[in-house]
Each structure stands twice: as structure tokens, then as C-alpha cells.
Design brief:
The protein is mainly α. The protein has a single domain, classed as Orthogonal Bundle (Arc Repressor Mutant, subunit A). Helices cover about 70% and strands about 5% of the residues. It contains six helices and three strands. A three-stranded antiparallel beta sheet has the order 1-3-2. Strand 2 (about 90-95) and strand 3 form a beta hairpin. Helix 1 (about 5-45) packs across helix 5 (about 110-130) and helix 3 (about 65-70) crosses helix 4. The longest helix is centred in the N-terminal third of the chain and has 42 residues, at about 5-45. The chain is elongated, with a radius of gyration of 20 Å.
Length: about 160
């Protein structure tokens, strides 16, 4: 075992413990954000899966029904039901693909984008309230910025602004 492997092995429990704490933070923050979004989504009659689909569509020019099913982890039939409801509410539109008329393309409408933007702004406000407690010049703030950049760079998820 070389010195690099020894150092890496020595820090593994620390990294794993930090990862567990970060996972808890993500889970509880997500739960808090969803609970705060709940009244607004209920007011608009939008479910969490429907909202997630709208958020995905906001970052895509269009998605096929099979693309939606894959992204949502649903069957095409379940995705069709979700798309039907969102279309009835005016948050998305469907149209035939210009390259293959057998395919249906789904796009978010202006109203759908406004809903996602409003919800995202509420989440941003919550995060700003937390982050404002940090001194921007502190080592904690600098470490947080490093962690954020690393998560965005190496995330296995397709994050907005990162090839979503």
C-alpha cells in the first residue's frame, strides 16, 4: 500500500460520516421544502410527481412520452395520465414530432414555467435564510462553496445548468 492509499483509507470513515450527515441534510431539507410547497401545489391541484415533471420540462425543449416515462420512472401509461392532467390545467402542451409524426412531443407552457419559477423561488428564499448566517469570508463558507462545486461537477444526476 502506498502513501496515497494509506491517506485515502485513513480518511474513508470521515468521508463516509460526512456523507451520511450530508444525506440526512438533503433528506430533511427536501422534506421541509416539499412540506412548504405542499399548500401551494395543493392550491394549484398539482401533485409532487407532476411538479417534478414540470421542473424537468423547464430545462428541456421538449420530451417524448417515452422520455417522460424514463425520467419519471413510470410506465408510459402512467406518464400519459400525468401529462393529460397537466395539459388540462394548461401547464404543458403536446404536439407531433416534426421528424416523426408518430411521436408526441411534450413542452411546458408559460404558465407551467411560472409555477416552477414560483416554487423554485420559495426554495431559494429558504436556502438564502440559512446561508445568510455564514460569514462569506469564513472557512466554512469557502468549504461549502467547494462542496457545492464538487457536487455539481461529479453528480451522477442531471442537474439544471449541468446538462439536465
Amino acid at each position: 500500500m502506498n502513501a496515497r492509499q494509506t491517506t485515502s483509507t485513513r480518511y474513508q470513515p470521515v468521508v463516509e460520516e460526512d456523507a451520511k450527515k450530508l444525506a440526512d441534510f438533503v433528506l430533511f431539507t427536501q422534506s421541509s421544502c416539499i412540506l412548504n410547497l405542499s399548500p401551494q401545489l395543493n392550491n394549484k391541484r398539482v401533485s409532487y410527481p407532476q411538479f417534478f415533471l414540470l421542473a424537468c420540462l423547464e430545462h428541456e425543449e421538449a420530451l417524448t412520452m417515452s422520455g417522460i416515462a424514463k425520467k419519471m420512472g413510470h410506465s408510459t401509461a402512467a406518464s400519459t395520465g400525468m401529462v393529460n392532467k397537466l395539459e388540462e390545467m394548461g401547464y404543458i402542451t403536446r404536439s407531433p414530432s416534426p421528424s416523426d409524426r408518430r411521436k408526441i412531443m411534450v413542452c411546458i407552457t408559460k404558465e407551467g414555467k411560472e409555477l416552477v419559477s414560483s416554487m423554485r423561488q420559495n426554495i431559494v428564499q429558504e436556502l438564502v435564510a440559512i446561508l445568510q448566517r455564514l460569514d462569506r469570508n469564513s472557512s466554512s463558507a469557502q468549504q461549502l462553496a467547494q462542496v457545492r462545486q464538487t457536487l455539481l461537477k461529479y453528480s451522477p444526476f442531471n442537474l439544471p445548468g449541468q446538462g439536465f
